[in-house]
Amino acid sequence: MKWQGGRRSSNVEDDRASSMRTSSGSLGMLIPIIRFLLGSKIGRIVLVIGVVAYFMGYNPLALLDGGASTQREPTDSPQEQEKLAFVSAVLAQTEDVWGEIFKSAGARYEEPGLRLFRDQIASGCGFASAQTGPFYCPRDRKIYLDLSFFDELANKYKAGGDFAQAYVIAHEVGHHVQNLIGTLEYVSALKRRARSEAEQNALQVKVELQADCYAGVWAHYLAKAGRVLEAGDIDEALNAASAIGDDTLQRKFSGRVVPDSFTHGTSAQRKEWFKKGLVGGNLKVCSFEP
What we know:
By secondary structure, the chain is α/β, with parallel strands linked by helices. Helices cover 54% and strands 8% of the residues.
């Protein structure tokens, strides 16, 4: 994927240095400790020192984990800055493509934000951790991404490559498009009327597959431009879509497949819907029946 020469999006917020770097168990212990410290003058001084240390890049909460918090590469290192540049370039490409698509339909594309974080973050949709995976929050219209997911994608799921990573971002942007055109709100209303969790899950699968299709539409325009894609890029995206299918994940981690619990679609479905968008190149081919 030739991304280095393109423009960078101004909608990326790099919160990796300030994200909380501790476990959820430590957070549960934190509240009573704060209450105790607030009860004395010395305790309040300790709190102030802890806050100052945190914003200087130290993590006093790691003591609650016995020092078990993982130390990662500083965000200002060349490697981490390269990752930031990549994400910004990919987001810019989605902005350009969807901007043109909306313009051709007589509408204006409102660009999403993208927040990079480490381990844990408070979003407009509530508190989230890296274990959540990349996600889009319709309330604040932002994508949330812990870049460790890309390492997990490559190492645990054998779906590496820069275009596999770009596909993940494009998928989340697809949810933003759904938000702009009212799909997410419409499906949320259907979910509230659903008679079972299985029905709700089935609706969510359709939402996720459509986001895969929208990612395919984005890839269609990149291929049409002929300046970004390289040999093997589409295969990387298809491999990633397959690797994170519900059936593949369930079979890998539990040894059994429960279709009623699917929330993103099977590996075959995810590949199929990405291909739909890739070949069709427009929103109509991504339509689904509720």
